[in-house]
Design goal:
- By secondary structure, the chain is mostly beta strands.
- The protein has strands at 3-7, 10-13, 18-25, 34-39, 46-51, 58-60, 68-73, 78-83, 92-99, 112-115, 119-124.
- Strand 5 and strand 6 (58-60) form a beta hairpin.
- The chain is globular.
Amino acid sequence: QVQLAESGGGLVQAGGSLRLSCAASGRTFSSYAMGWFRQAPGKEREFVGRVSWSGGTTDYADSVKGRFTISRNNINKMLYLQMNSLKPEDTAVYYCGAPKSTYYYAQSIDDFGFWGQGTQVTVSS
């Protein structure tokens, strides 16, 4: 099992950058693929990106591809989301998540069983 906690959100102008962090606890963090998701007011939670348990493979939603970068440090049990060229439509609460099973490169939100509390990102025009 793994416990997650996001941080690093804030208010930034369009075109600016932020780096989000997700601190994990648990002995099996290195066995879990990890994902970043976001939820805007009145909308459903949507996929942002994912990274394999080893960190060697990443995938991103088309809306953030080329602007966002996911990385992880299995020694320190940290997950990161570097966000550049931010747009107002990026405004949302951002969550990190872990799949329900180890060694599973999950794609669907339904396959993620562990979530952090979320961190607010607001991008002004």
